[in-house]
Amino acid sequence: MRATVLGSFPGTDMRATLRWVLGELPDLAPVPELPARGPGAQMIGRATPLLEGLACDLQPGGWRLTDASGVDHRRARSLLRQDLDDLEELAQGWSGTLKVSVAGPLTLAAQLERPRGDKALADHGARAEIAASLAEGVGNLLADLRRRLPDVTWMVQLDEPMLPAVMAGAVPTASGFSRHRAVHAPEVAAAMDALAISVGDAPVVVHCCASGLDLALLGRTRIAGVSLPSSLLGSRDLDALGPWLEDGRQLLLGVHPTWPVDTPRSVDDVAGTALGVLRPLDLDPELVRGAVTLTPDCGLAGWTHQPAVTCIRTLVRASGLVAEHLGR
Predict the structure, then answer these.
(1) Assessment of whether the complete model's pTM goes beyond 0.70
(2) Is the Cβ–Cβ distance between 238 and 277 less than 8 Å?
(3) Per residue of the chain (328 residues), what is the pLDDT tens digit?
(4) How far is CA 327 from the centre of its chain?
(5) Gap between the Cα atoms of 255 and 266, Å rounded
(6) Nearest Cα residue to 256 out of 266, 246, 244
(7) First-last CA distance in the chain
């Protein structure tokens, strides 16, 4: 059983963060995200350089699709290129799995504004264009990463915190007096499949830190895994996890709370949380050990360095303890 973290870290020093992440997580490490560096390093801004053929600009209300790239979009592209150069240099000789995170197509559509206002979510054509553009861009990113680091195995994490709200028709319009229409399952499945196809054999994991993710829908797509916080799992989710794992898919299980910040839990506490979810599934321990990875509930960007290191080490030790207890 492995342990990892979801991607976002404190601080602004990418090279220093890369060094300690690769050292602490030799089997499955995230490519760090450092949102404290500014809008181009945050979830939506970091995805904009990957939108092939689409230009963006940062407005007071957030990122907007435009005819030509604004200065903030160009800065985001430059920052991503520098991060990839640092990764290529510092991960030479590293041979584990690296997980690269990107905002998912539905969350992007719910956050990006159209040129004339309101969210792209309101327009079926805009949603389709964003999904296709992102799939192409992430596919190109993976091709570049494989060229730079041929010994590394790759995983893609799609951050989709807004997916349940998008599918439930719960995203507010610009006025706040109405809600955008729900996006239906076939369109969501098509967007997920397009992205999974674009990255070849790299597994794609959907991370959602909101309740209500439709596992049955994702089970009909090429998505290889989900990343969910245990604190938000309801009885319906728990019932779906057994078939999900038996189908050969992965589960990144959030078992270490990230709020309040800088509050590492004990190894026994974290292991107990994991066992409380996994034991009732009554699955083959070997299957569970191979398919489940322990993570924090969400990112660690709000933490400070030393507590974040302690959190990671706690998860690594807890993963060994959970694997041991499942075999008894």
Answers:
(1) yes
(2) yes
(3) 999 999 899 999 999 999 999 999 999 999 999 999 999 999 999 999 999 999 999 999 899 999 999 999 999 999 999 999 999 999 999 999 999 999 999 999 999 999 987 899 999 999 999 999 999 999 999 999 999 999 999 999 999 999 999 999 999 998 888 999 999 999 999 999 999 999 999 999 999 999 999 999 999 999 999 999 999 999 999 999 999 999 999 999 999 999 999 999 999 999 999 999 999 999 999 999 999 999 999 999 999 999 999 999 999 999 999 999 998 7
(4) 30
(5) 11
(6) 266
(7) 15
Cα 97 from chain centroid (whole Å): 15
Q: Phi-psi bin for 32: left (phi > 0), alpha (psi -120 to 50), beta?
A: beta
Task: For residue 288, give the amino acid letter.
Answer: V
Phi and psi of 301, rounded to 5°? -60, -30
156, 226 in Cβ contact below 8 A?
A: no
Single out the residue of 163, 164, 104 nearest to residue 134, CA to CA: 104
CA atoms within 13 A on the CB side of 161: 12
Alpha helices for 149-180 (secondary structure H): 163-168
